[in-house]
Each structure stands twice: as C-alpha cells, then as structure tokens.
Amino acid sequence: MADSVQMTLHELVLQATNLYADRRAVCFDDSSNKPPISYTYKEVVGFAKELMHFLQKHCDSPGRCEIGLYCHPGINLASWILGILQVPAAYCPIDPEAPPHLSSYLMRKYNLKYVLVDHNKAEKFIFSHSDWSQHVSSEIHHLGLTLFKMQCNGTAASVLLDDTQSRHRNTSISGDQKEDKANILEHDEGSYMDIRKTQLAYVLHTSGTTGIPKIVRVPHICIVPNILHLRSVFSVTQDDLLFLASPLTFDPSIIELFIALTSGACLLIVPHVIRMMPEKLCDAIFHRHKITVLQATPTFLRRFGTPSIRSMILSSSSSLRVLALGGEAFPAMNILRSWREAGNQTQIFNLYGITEVSSWATCYQIPEEAFDDRFEECSVPLGSPLFGTQVEVRDTNSLALQEGEGQVFVGGKQRICFLDDEIIVPLGTLRDTGDFAVVKGTNIFFLGRKDNQIKRHGKRVNIGVVQQATESLSQVETCAVTWYQQEKLVLFVVPRGDLEEKEIFKELQKCLPSPAIPDELLLIEALPFTLHGKIDVSKLNKIYSLQLQKKRHSCLVAGEEELWDRLQVIWKFLLGLPEDSSGAPENSTFLSSGGDSLLSLRLQEEVENLVGRAVPGLLEVILSKSIADIHSHVSKAVFQHGDLKGIRHNQKRKLSLMDKEDNDGQYVTLQGPENHSIVENGLKAFVALSRGNQVFMNTPKLIESHKRTFRYQLPCFCRVSYTTEKAVRSATEHGMKSSNFATETGPCNNTPAKQNSLSVPQLTLCLRWKSDTGKCVDASPLAVLSAEGESSATVYIGSHSHRMQALDLHSGSVKWERILGDRIESSACVSKCGNFIIVGCYDGLVYILKSSTGETFWTFTTEDAVKSSATLDSSTGLVFIGSHDQHTYALNINMKTCVWKLHCGGGSVFSSPCVNIQPHLLYIATLAGLLLAVNPNTGCSVWKYSCGKPLFSSPQCNQEYVCVGCVDKNLYCFNHSGQKILYVCQLDWKYL
C-alpha cells in the first residue's frame, strides 16, 4: 500500500485499466424498458482522454486549476471526472438542484473560471447563471458536455458571509497573511503542506446545516489512503458491483466511485429521480442488478422500510456482501437485529468521518455475535483509525483523554485538506469535528453533535440520547428529534403499526430524566432527508410549524363549558391518567396530582392553544392554585366579551383593511380553509403592504376545505409580487395590457365613474387610533395581513426614538416594542416566510426580528448607518439592503448569512433596492448618481448609468422599464438592457 499511497486517483484507475480493460467499469440503468448501458474500462478512459485534451486546449488557467462540474450522475460521469483530473485539475461538483444563489455563491468561493455543464442541464444553468458564457464545445458534444466560462463584468461583487467567518478561522495561514508568511516558511517545507505545491483532487463544501458552509480542497495524498484501506477492508475485487448512493457534493461519493474503478469492479448508477423513489430504487439495485457493496447513511437505508430491508437487502439470500453505514449516528443494535433476517451473511460496518478531513476517519465491523439476542446491549464503537489517520478525544483544556468524555479531533500527517482560503497547513493538523464522544478502554463511543447538547430548564440534555431511547422502543420504526427554535424539544416518530402518543411518553418517562422528555410528539409516515441522505431537520421543523398552525386554530374552544371539558382531557393526558378515569375534582392542584414544573409549562401552552392567545399570569395559577381556579382565570381573560364561538364561526366577515363594506377598486383574493389558512411547509399565507403601493403576497399551496375569501383593496397603480408553490410571478398594471395581472387581481378601471342624478357620497377621513413613537417618524409603515384572521393584522413602524413597534392594525394597541441601538429611518420589510421583520438602523446594524415577538433572530453588521429599506426577492427569499458604507448586501435570513456584498461605485446607498422578476435584475441607486442593474444571485453588475447628481429616489420597475428620480429634477427611464428611453426634465418636486 505504501507505494500506491503516493499515486493520484486517476493513476490508480489507469493502473486498473491495464488489468481489466474489457471488463465493465460503469453501468447506468434508468429503470425504463430500455436495457442498461455499460462502458468498459477501456471506453471510460478513452472518453476521459478526449476531454482531457479539450480542457488542456481551452482552459487557460495558470497555476492551480479547478473546474466545475454541473450535472447529475450518468453513464459518462466517470469519464468526466477522470478527464478533469488528468488535465491536471481538481473537479468541483455543483448540484443542479441547489438554489441558484447558493450555487453562485459557491462557484465564486471556489474561484471557478470554467464549468462543464451536462447538456441536459445547460438551459437551466444559463437561466440561473447569466454571468457565465458558453465556450467553444463542439469537440466534446458527443460526451454530453458544454463548457462555460465566467464573464463577470462591471462593478465587482465580493463573496462574503459575515463577520462570523473571521471569528472562526483556525491557526492555519490564510487570507491576507498568505503570501508573506508562506515565503517565511518555505525554508521549513517538511513541517507544512502548501496548497501551491500540492495536487488537488476535488473541491467540496460542508453542508452548512450547523453553521457557515466551508470550502474544502482535498489533495490526492489525503484521499488515496482512504480508498486503498477501505478497498482492502471490504475485500473488493473485479467481481463486485458497487452502487453510487451518495450525491457528488457529498464526499463519500469519492469512496464509492474510486473503490470500484481502482479494483476492476463495476459501478452502478441510476437517475437522480429514481434515487428519490425507495420502491423503484430497491427493485433496481437489489432485484435487477444485485449489488454486492453498499455505502450509505442510516437515513438512506431507513427509507426502504423494515419489511424491504429484511426481505431483500439483509435477507438470507441477499447479494449484498458489505453494508457500510456512515455520515450519521449508527443505528442501535436492536434496530440492526430487526433489519437482519436469520441466515444473512452481510458484513456491516460503522464508518465515521468529517468532510474537513475527507472522507472517513475510522471503521468498525460489527461482530457476528452482536446480532445474537442474548448478546449484551451496548453502543457501537467508532472503530480503528484508517491508514494515516489520527483520532483524539480532548477535554476542555485540549488535552487528549485516555478515559472519559470530550470532543473528537481527527487528522494526520498527510491527511490534510485546505479549508476556505488556507494556503499553508501544518502537517499533522487535527480538526475539531464538533462531535462529543466517550473513551472507554480502547474504544471510542459516539455521543452526539456539539449542537445536540442543549440546556433545557437548567439541565443539559443530549438530543442523541433522546433519539436512541425512542428508537429502542419496539413500537418505533425510526425517529428524529429537533430543538425547535431553541424552545421546544419535538420528537418525530415513524411508528410500527398502530401507536398512541401516550404510550411513547410512558415508556420514555421510564428511561429518561424529566428535562429530556420531549414537549411534543408527532407521528409521521416517513422522515424527510437531504440530498446527502441525512435527516432533513429544516423540513421536520416546517412539518412541526404546520402542525402548530393547525393546532392553534382547529382546537379553539367555543365557550366556558367546552373549556372545562378540554382542560380535564389535557390534565389527564399530561399526568398519565387513563382517558376513562373520572375527572379531576375542582380543588385538585397540578403539582400535588403528580405534575412538575416542566409539565406545568406544557399545561400552560396547551391551554393557551385552546383559546388561541396568551393568558397573562396563567403559569402562576397553575403552579399554586386548583383546576377550578385555572378555569376561572382563563375564562375571565378570554370570555369576558363573550364566547369564542361567535368569532370562530363568523364566515361572513371579510378580513380587509377597513371594517366597512367593500368599496369599488381592485382586489387580490386569497382562498383558505373554513376556520383558518393552513399552509404547506410551515409557510404563512399573508399580504404585506408598504408605502401604499407595494404588495408582497405569499400564498403557498393551501390545504383546501370549505373556502372563504379574504379581500384586500389595492390602489389602481401598484406592483404585485407573489409566490405560489410552483412559481414566482410578477405583474404590473398602469394603463398597460397585462392579461396575467388582470386575471390574478381583477381589472383595473382608470375611467372616472359616470355622474348621475343621485348624490355621490364624499370620502371623509377620521382618526381611528394613534401610537406614540417618541420622536419623528421618517420610516414608512409596513402592514402585514395574515389569512389566519383579523387579530393577526399588524403594522410595523420605527422612529428616531430608536423604537421599533408592532401595532394591531385595527385597534392600534402595541403588540411588542423594541429599543434598537440608534435612530430608525429604514422602513421594515417582511421575510418570505413571514416569520421575520428586517429593518436597518443608524448604528450600522441590520436587525432581523421575529415578527410575532420582536425577539432578535439575527443582526448583520455593516460599516456605516443603514437608512436604506430592505427589499425582498420573492423568487429566492434573499433580502437586499444598502448602507452608507457604499455597499449593498444580499442576506439569506434563514441561514443567517450574507451571500454577497457589492461596492456600489463610491456613493452611499440611501434608497431602497428594487427587484424585477423577469428579467431577474436588482436595481440600486446611489448618492454618487449611479443606477446599477445587478444579478441578484451573484451580485455581478450587468449595466450601470451615471445620472451625475445624487439619487435619493428608490428605483421602480415593471416588466419593460425601470425609472428613477434624480436631484437634477429629471426622471430617468431605461429598458432592462440599460438603454435610456426618456427622461422628463425640470420636474419641480421636493420628494421622490
């Protein structure tokens, strides 16, 4: 192995080709009626050689060369990768399913100059990435590829996350230090690995699920030992058939690909869509092709379900020799036993590793005796370090432990990858995995992610322990646990047969301490998973968010009598009492009946869900008084103006901006269920209005029942931008023909109404309410009206008193108020999901506040005052905002990252950016007089125009034109290509 370790990946494949030239190397089966397609080793290497010569001819990249690969796996995949490697260059997989702004961000972080695009994905790539131009590609047309070259012109946009990136750098040399310190250290080359003198194999990124995605550049010398050692452990030969289970952006795909191609074995590939369909996938890889080696995540395997796993994958007659599970916590042994049919001979391995030290660090084979039911139940160890890999468990003082709990670090003398902009890394560097483990004797046992260690009610809880305890129950097929909004422990269970929630809670209370008992339990049919085959926590949170909406609105009690009955049901459930037991006596107190402080919090939440609102002082009553007192307290707070029944069942009342009958004009209609609007994926259905003429309407797919109509009156000249489940569209109407707009919003009639002999009522205005903000208000209010009901309609406004207020639209009462760090001139903007409000401040911060409570979700720091108002891109969810530091920023609110920042040519950005959906452009006006048209996904300037004088005006656009007002008294109009159409001179205005 020692000699082979020094070889590159493609050299190992060429070596295998010399031995197995005519054997099958790759097989592609699209699960149609057509026979599978296969290439021999000789054919794969031949196509790779053609691509290599083409790239050497057309890619003029001096020094280190990295080439993007935008594709789904297909029959030509191996040739594409080998062709890039032989240039020599590193390949950088780009996921066609990723959001365009994320792909653009990653390509710029990779510093890519060239991208090879699968013919089938070329149209999608062009649409999503307009700053790339098609290169001469006729020579490789038969290989199914098109070469694109980066063409980012005009004002440069710098790729940026936020200041957290600089805080998380390690001690390796990077960034501005790299040239000077690299030269200083050249005399001691034996102590460091230098990226400029190291041949890279591929470039990936971490998932970013636990923080900011890191760019990982992997040398051949780092990954080759992994390939060779695992190939030996799995005893792979030319007779094996391996399945490409991992997506290209997940580094275990390298293991699958090159273990096969360096052994003379065959690699089986199926289309991306088949991988998403468990039944078809199981039939393809275990029935038709009978694979012998499978490497996958536990979640990937669980998708098949226990019956299929037991009858096909791990049956007594299974073709599968090797099953290697990694990327997530290894399943409990009782789960493995339930999966394995008697007589099965498959060898099962536990793999552990991190992308930052690609790919695997340890390996452990489950001994045969562990599958015996009489075998003592215990956790599965991580196993022994792979060739060249060092593993340590360190305490809080960074000292290696021989016994006890600590954090896992992995690395090795030459098992080194370069993270982000690292240039030089000391040999033997060990990376922090973010995982906790315990050392017992010679074994290391995985405990869970650092992020899974939460503090709950003053006690530390390991989410992984909760999951393991639940999975050990015989009624549970599989499960997942999330820490929802850092407030609630939510358990998701895929049950085996019929299962009642209370039974799960009873069992968990026997084996878990009180702080580890979940707040909520949801029974679901299957766990969602990411493209990397791991549990998709974000989708689970959306499922729970949807459940909360249903619960809050469908469970409202109609009156005091129903409240008492429902209170008794909740009381018995939380205390674990039988449903058919007699009700609690009126003088019963919760704590003396068996409750505790944690269950008291759950009781408070359940009662507030019943009445659909917060009840002040409720927790104190629960802790100290009787059930009758609880009922009385809630009744006084909720029913003093009558039962909820009249409110809940009043379908005739229209939710509108006014409590009057409908007026003539233009309306947007939302359809919703009878009692409330239930929205898929946890998104809220709402309409947001700002500055009187801007509307954002978020109407995700609604779950239909009896429909009611919510009507919002709009002025005749307005821009409507709204999102649906399938598409994002934009329409503008002002005396123009626009069939889509008329269809969605109704006709806009600008013709004055005919006068008649009857008296025409005159419009009069009267003060309905007012709110004291403390100082001058320069910001414009933002009104957000939810389809949930009138009580949710809210106005958000900031002032120079530093106050940010959320006010009830109908009463003017303050829902919440925040004091920010300085004056507020910026108008608020709502996020696409409706959960957050974005507002700029004179202190240089952009505040992202929870719309329901005002609690700070995130703050983003600029370098000067933020007077600009944020703008939402309804197609991507990105939020754009300018600063007096002369930059515009693109923020991903949910990921708490800045996707890009753009220097706007020297002038501060006072006005609000403007997004046009088709063509997809972002317009920015500056106090230096520049109007810039920018690609919203990348921050690259498309065109710009200098008006010569400051632009305080915010640009406005429709499908054909963009307009902006200037201090020189002119109104400028351009088409979306940047051609000036007209300008209106000498307008005598004071405000634009």
Identify the notable features of this structure and list them briefly:
single chain, GMP Synthetase, Chain A, domain 3, 23% helix, five-stranded mixed β-sheet, Rossmann fold, alpha+beta
Structure, described:
This protein is α+β, with helices and mostly antiparallel strands and 992 residues long. Among the domains are: 2-160, 3-Layer(aba) Sandwich (Rossmann fold), CATH 3.40.50.12780; 221-402, ANL, N-terminal domain (Rossmann fold), CATH 3.40.50; 457-549, 2-Layer Sandwich (GMP Synthetase, Chain A, domain 3); 557-643, Orthogonal Bundle (Non-ribosomal Peptide Synthetase Peptidyl Carrier Protein, Chain A). It is 23% helix and 28% strand. It is built from 24 helices and 56 strands. The strands form 14 sheets. It has an eight-stranded mixed sheet with strand order 36-35-33-32-37-38-39-40, with helices on one face. Strand 3, helix 4 and strand 4 form a beta-alpha-beta unit. The longest helix has 18 residues, at 41-58. The radius of gyration is 31 Å and the shape is globular. Residues 153-171, 173-182, 645-682 and 701-758 have low confidence and may be disordered.
